[in-house]
Every structure is written in structure tokens, then in C-alpha cells.
Amino acid sequence: MEKPIIFLQKNFRTEFIQQIRDIAPDYQIKTELNDSEFAKVEIAVGWQKQFSQQLLDSKNLKWVQSISAGVDYLPLDTFAQQAILLSNSSGIHALSISEHIIGTLLGYYRGLNQAVKNQVVNSWQPENIHYDQLAGKNLLVVGTGHIGQQLSKSIRSLGVHVYGINTTGHPADGFVETYSIKNMAKIVPEMDIVVGILPGTQETYHIFNSHIFENMKESAIFVNVGRGETLHTKELITALEVKQFAFAALDVFEEEPLPKESPLWQLENVLVTPHISGLTVDFQNKFMKIFLANLKSYVADGSLSENQVELKRGY
Question: Which residues fall in a coiled-coil region (predicted)?
Fold first, then answer.
């Protein structure tokens, strides 16, 4: 009987390919497939849209290991119908995204954003540089998972008071206090910084909207590094144009790439970054710790030991 296939949709280093072989000797490892081989794929590492129908039509796919933390782009309903296991890469981007957030905050509070713009036109205008102090600020992390907890750990050393929002308001490590997501609009008036780190689900769709923005401090900062669809873009633009709050640092968008005609490019109180907060040094090593641990448990008894996604919840 021909061995089932582990389909790697990303090129991994030779050392990791060998570790996969050692753990799963009864599988073939493939990085490219001909049409007849899709029916033999049991494990998919990564998910490319052009292969999705062939993989799902085979009915032999048993497990997908996502290379990303967010999985809202995957056909979760079909996975549930076909009893396909799904695991994500949650946690490996936590330090990178935390540093990105801190960098954007310091760029705003210490006037670095304006200094860069002035440098382009050879302008020496220290009197026009906006500055403030990050220490002592109240920061609300909307999403207290791996990334939120790492952000709290990193930024508390700078004297920031960190609060959290999650589904139920359950306690989480490193937060002064946590609140239920249904109470977010009541909490934001006390916050200097609001950071969105939410997955894309039906419950989180457009959760950052005019109701939230109109309750924020005029001096507040909004940062979004979660999923673009958690943000109501049109209502954000309106809020920024009338200066309901001071500044937005956006790394994710409802439409990517961000269209050239979007007003967000031109607004002075916006920093646009092209979905780079999750770029991670030594990604392969961090990712493989999750995948190889899962592969060991899957080969042993068909279960996943790390980061299994609840398909109905989407995370």
C-alpha cells in the first residue's frame, strides 16, 4: 500500500525535513504534487487557495497545520463537516508583534514619525514635534491570548498600566484587570491606548466601530494588529477626520493590499504598515516546535498536542 502524503506548502530546511521523516516514517513528504497525488494527502502544512478544492475533494485530508496564527481565511465549515483537525501557529509571532506595537507607540509619543517626515524635506522644526510620555499611560489590550500577554509583559517594564478585554472577562496573566468584550465601550474612556489583537470571527466583525471611537479620549491612540475585518474602516476614517481620537497605527486592513485611493494613506494622524508586525526572526525553528510536537501526538494516537483550533469558534 502506498504511503499517505504530508504536503509541505512552504520550503523548510533539510534538518526539519529529516525530523519529519524520523517521526513519521510511514508517510511520504512532498512539496509539490501532481494531480493524482492530492487524493493521498493526509496532512497539509500551510494552505494555498489554489490547492484547496483538490485537497477537500479527496476526502482523505485529516489534519491541516496552519502556518499563520489567524485561520479565518480557511474553509472552517468544510473542515468541521469532514472532521479535519486544524492547528495554528499562535504564539510564535508574539514577541515580534509586541515589539512592533511598542515601536509604533514610541514613534508617536517621541515625535519620531514627524521627524521622519521633516527629514524628507530637510526641515529642522523641533518646535513642531509632538512629544509625550509612554510611562504612566493606561493601555487596553483587546485580546489577552499569547500576543496580548507578551505585550503586557514587555510594556509593563516601561511603566505602562495594562488592562485586558477578552470574551468573558476571565483573568489573564500580566493584566491589572480584565473585562468582558461586551463592556469594551464602557472601558475605553479611561484608556490612553487601545490595541486590537483579535481573530477574525462572526463575533469580532467590525467590533471596532463608531460606538468605540466616539467613547475614546481625544488624546488616545488606536493600534490594530489583529485582523482587518475587526475594524469598520469607513467609521474609522470618519473618526480620524474629525479627530475623535488622536492617532491610529494600522498594520492590518479589510482589503489588502490597502487600495491606493484609500484616505488612510493621506491622513496625518495615521501610520500605515503593510501587515509586517508578525514578521518573525527564525520563523522556521519556532514553527517547527509546534508542528513536530503535533506530528508526534498525531502519529501516536491521532490527536494534536499544540494549538488545536476549535472550528466553531474560529480560534
Answer: none
